[in-house]
C-alpha cells in the first residue's frame, strides 16, 4: 500500500523553477565557456612548451656545433700544416693557454700527437690536471675510427660544473688516412645550464605548484645533465620515472619534438601534467633530450578562477532571484493557499466558511466555484442529516415495536425488554461509554429476546414449571435470535448482545 506522499509547498516549486530557469543557462554557459577556455589555454600552453623545448634544443645544437667546429677547425688546420709540429715553436704553449682562457666555455684544450709531446692548456680554477688527463684518455680510447666524438655532459668534481668532451682526429700520412694526432676539448655545459634555469630561486616543486614550466636536459639513458636544481644534474639522477622522458627515450632519435601529456604522482596523488620534448643532436651517438613539464591544474588556474567567478555570480543571481521570486511567488500562491485552506475546512466538515480570493485570473473563478460547491454540499449534508435522523427514529421505532411484540407474546414478560434497555443504559452511563456504544447497548437490550419468536407457545406460555426437555428448548432462544438477525447486515453490531445475554461471566 502506498504511503502518503509528503506535500511540497507551491511556493517552493515556483522558487525552484525560477532558480532552475534562471541559473541553469547561466551555469551551463559559464561552464561551457570555461571548458572551452581550458581547451584553448591547454592548447596554447602545449604550443608554447613545444616551441620552448625546440628553441632550447636548437640553442644546445648551436652550442655544440660551435665547439665542434672549433675542434674540427683546429684538426683541419693541423692537417694543412702537415701535423702538430708547429706547436713545438717557442711561445706556442702560451698562445694555446691564452686561447683557452679567452673562451669562457672552453675549460681545457689538448693536442695529443700519436708520437711526441702532448700540448695541454686548461683553466685551473675550472678543472684539475688529473680530470683533464682522464677525459683526454677516455676520448683517445674512442678514436679508433675517423670522425668527431662528442661525449655526454659529465660533472667536473673540482668546479662542480657539467662539461662535455669533444674530440677530433688529425689525419696525415701519404694518403691522409692515418691518425697522427687528436684535438680534445673539454667544454663547459654551464651556458646550457643557464638556459634551463629559471630566473628565480624557487625549487622544482614550487615552480610546478605555481604553474610554471620546468625545463631540463637528459642524455640518451634518461639521466639529467642540466636541471633547474643543479644537484639533480650533478647526481645524474634518472628521470625515467616520468612518462614524458620514457616517450622521448622511445622515439627521441626519430622525432624532432612532440607534446606528451602524462600523469605523475605527487604526495600519493595522481597529478595531470603537460609535457613536451625535443631532441638536440650534438652527435649521432649522443642525442640529448630537452624536456618541459608543467602542472596542468596550476597552469590552468585562470580557468579555475573563471569557474569560481561564475559560481559567485550564479550565487549572487540566485540570491536576487530568490528575493524577487519570493515576493512574486507569495502574491501568486496566496489564492492557492486560500483555496487549500477552504478545501481542508470542507474536508473537516465545516461548511460555514467561504473562500475570499481577490483575483481576476482563473484562481478567482475557481474560488467562486468552491463557494458554490460549498453551498450545495452544505444543503446536501443537511438533507442527509435530516434523512439519517428520520431513518434512525424509524429504525428505533421498529425495534421497539418488535420488542413489544415479543414481550406481548408472553404476558409474564410484558415490558421486559424496555426495562432491560433502561437498566443497561444506566450501567453503560455509569461506565462512561461513548454515545455510539450506548446506542449499540440500547438496541441490543431491546432485541435480546427476539429469539423467543422461534419458541413454541406451549412452552413459552406454559403456566407450570418447564420440564428439563422444555427448559433446554427455552435456553436455545439466544442462538435462535442470533440466527434470525444475522441475516440482516444492519444488525451486525447488535448480534453479540442477542447471542450472549445469558452468559455467566466469572
Count of DSSP helices? 16
Distance between the termini: 43 Å
Helix and strand run: HHEEHEEEEHHEEHHEEEEHHHHHHHHH
Low-pLDDT segments: none
Helix and strand content put the structural class at alpha+beta
Overall mean confidence score, pLDDT = 79
DSSP summary, beta strand count: 12
CATH class annotation of the domain at 376-499: Mainly Alpha
CATH topology of the domain at 376-499: Hypothetical protein af1432
Helix content class: 40-55%
Assign the CATH superfamily of the domain at 376-499: Hypothetical protein af1432
Radius of gyration: 56 Å
Task: Tell me the strand percentage band.
Answer: 15-25%
Main sheet? 6 strands, antiparallel
Net shape: rod-shaped
Instruction: Using the 3D structure, state the CATH architecture of the domain at 376-499.
Output: Orthogonal Bundle
Q: What can be said about this structure in brief?
A:
By secondary structure, the protein is α+β, with helices and mostly antiparallel strands. Helices cover 54% and strands 15% of the residues.
Describe the secondary structure blueprint for this structure.
Layout: H1 10-80, H2 92-101, E1 106-113, E2 119-122, H3 129-141, E3 149-150, E4 154-156, E5 161-172, E6 178-188, H4 190-196, H5 204-209, E7 214-218, E8 224-226, H6 230-234, H7 243-251, E9 257-259, E10 262-266, E11 269-281, E12 287-295, H8 296-299, H9 301-347, H10 362-409, H11 416-431, H12 435-446, H13 457-460, H14 468-474, H15 477-485, H16 495-499
Antiparallel strand pairs: 1-2, 1-6, 3-5, 4-5, 5-6, 7-8, 7-12, 9-11, 10-11, 11-12
Helix pairs in contact: 1-4, 1-9, 9-10, 11-12
